[in-house]
Amino acid sequence: MITYFDETTENVLKNLEETQKQFWNIARVTGEFLYTLIKTEKSKNVLEIGTSNGYSGIWLGKAVKENGGHLTTIEFYDKRLDIAKENFKICNVDDVITTLKGSALMHLEYLPDDFIIDFAFVDANKSEYVKYFEFIDRHLKKGGIIACDNVLSHEAKCKPFIDAINANPNYENVVISLPAGLSLARKLSNF
Question: End-to-end CA distance of the chain, in Å?
């Protein structure tokens, strides 16, 4: 296994990997992929829907910190968000992360007009993916990326989203066969 971070962060990640099924975390290879992609794209304004215990947020947070950016992450459940905040602090990324508690749809609906997204990662209520996409699209810059996890493991629930993004001429989408299936779409234009 390749190590990316300091020993403290790697230990936190390893501990969280042991509770992957309990907290519905992404696989490590997906975290590595997202981290590398955000760094390569030089994404600075990153949005995450579905914080859980902070596993994916650590990967995203480390990438945006190295890029001089910021991560905004949304989680519905108090207990999970409290665990995530502690993990962010231990891993030294809490200074580049804003956590929002509550319904992702509510938070997305009320994002300020000037809230620009370079990269969005979605790993929450699968049946709401298509609604998340509608809100994210308003804020995603041209060339920006929206990545959605579980599109193969929860194919039926994600189908409305996949159909919508594949039918949208402003997006180019591919599904990558990472463990749960990752939809990766780039915004081609702002129209």
Answer: 43
- CATH code, domain with 145: 3.40.50.150
Alpha helices in 18-172, H assignment, sequence order: 20-23, 28-41, 55-67, 78-90, 104-109, 129-139, 155-167
pLDDT, tens digit, 9 for 90 and up, residues 38-82: 999 999 999 999 999 999 999 999 999 999 999 999 999 999 999
Domain range spanning residue 60?
Answer: 7-187
Residue pair 25/57 in contact (Cβ under 8 Å)? The answer is: no
Give the DSSP H or E segment for 15: helix 7-17
Residue 2 within any structural domain of the chain: no
Number of domains observed in the structure of the chain: 1
Q: Kindly report, residue by residue over 75-125, the tens digit of the pLDDT.
A: 999 999 999 999 999 999 999 999 999 999 999 999 999 999 999 999 999
